[in-house]
Design brief:
Layout: E1 15-21, E2 27-33, E3 39-41, H1 47-63, H2 70-87, E4 96-100, H3 106-113, E5 117-122, H4 125-133, E6 139-141, E7 154-160, H5 169-179, E8 180-191, E9 210-211, H6 214-223, E10 226-233, E11 239-246, H7 266-271, H8 273-293, H9 299-310
Parallel strand pairs: 4-5, 4-7, 5-6, 7-8
Antiparallel strand pairs: 1-2, 2-3, 3-9, 8-11, 10-11
Helix pairs in contact: 2-3, 2-8, 2-9
The protein binds zinc ion.
Length: about 300
């Protein structure tokens, strides 16, 4: 365990405290880089600890495999179709796509039905098994550090809500870069730690080791050898979706963000109409989900129906 690691985004080694509790009020020390504003937990678990943790999880999973329910498949299927709409220009027709952290495989299924050649890796044995056996997509249930693909195997690598869970996101991005063909693209989505629409006491998720803003995500992608081709924060600023192109050119650093700017008051959170609008939207989403899933028997025909209705 290293008490003062250098920042993976900018190389500085001065950190300031950004938070002492997680979203559930439990102790969790988060620090911000004083130069670029990157957030991380302190201390970071090392790979050995993480490996032991996941190996233990694996054993537990084999005793009680859990798999996604139809409502989860519906939700993930709709999200996958939305992502395809947003990202289509960055996905070369018929391309080989690797999804790291494939979950139940809905994104891969949508890609396959749209003419791409997708593969996935998923840490969770239950979800990975579901993707393979129920949806019939090519998913290996293993941690990223055990996956071995030849260099240049893919035109695109996607990581949706994966990077923030990794103790070494820069190493992971460089690994993805190696798996990419020349000119290949990486697609990354992470929560936006700087979102103005986040409940101020719920900013620090206990399972997230890193917190990215648009500026720090740009920097980390640059450090890993990617030129930013696209970056946007989605609805209510909550997530950041970025596309990076594999490059050999050094990337110019983006503007730094001052540390410690994430301390909006509870008052401003509850005074914002967006807070209530979002709540209403979530409720109507749950209702729509319940109606869509009622009477459905299996995940594949549910997804086929969604894809057909989307065309
Ligand atoms: Zn930094």
């Amino acid at each position: 365990m290293n008490s003062t690691p250098t920042c993976i985004a900018c190389g500085a080694s001065d950190w300031t405290i950004a938070g002492l509790e997680d979203r559930d009020g439990k102790p969790l020390r988060s620090v911000a880089c004083e130069v670029c504003g990157l957030i991380r937990v302190d201390p970071l678990p090392d790979m050995g600890e993480l490996r032991r943790f996941y190996e233990e999880e694996y054993r537990l999973q084999y005793k009680g495999i859990r798999q996604p329910r139809l409502k989860h498949v519906y939700r993930a299927g709709r999200l996958a179709l939305d992502r395809l709409d947003t990202l289509r220009t960055h996905l070369p027709a018929g391309g080989r796509v690797l999804d790291v952290g494939a979950g139940g495989g809905e994104w891969l299924y949508v890609l396959e039905q749209s003419g791409y050649r997708p593969r996935g890796i998923e840490l969770d044995a239950g979800y990975g098994g579901f993707a393979r056996e129920v949806l019939g997509v090519d998913v290996t249930a293993c941690p990223m550090w055990e996956a071995s693909f030849s260099a240049g195997s893919f035109e695109v690598v996607t990581l949706f809500h994966v990077l923030e869970h990794l103790p070494e996101p820069l190493t992971a991005l460089r690994q993805c870069r190696e798996w990419l063909a020349d000119g290949g693209r990486i697609i990354v989505e992470v929560p936006n730690i700087g979102s103005r629409h986040q409940h101020p006491r719920k900013r620090f998720h206990p399972a997230h080791l890193y917190g990215f803003s648009p500026a720090t995500l740009r920097r980390v992608l640059g450090q890993a050898g990617f030129a930013i081709a696209f970056l946007e924060t989605g609805a209510f600023d909550r997530n950041i979706l970025a596309v990076g192109v594999k490059t050999d050119e050094p990337c110019a650093p983006s503007e730094p963000e001052p540390a410690g700017r994430y301390s909006e008051s509870l008052w401003s959170y509850y005074a914002s109409p967006a807070t209530y609008w979002r709540f209403g939207r979530r409720m109507s989403g749950l209702l729509r989900e319940a109606l869509a899933v009622a009477g459905q028997r299996d995940a594949r025909s549910l997804l086929d129906g969604l894809i057909a209705a989307h065309r």
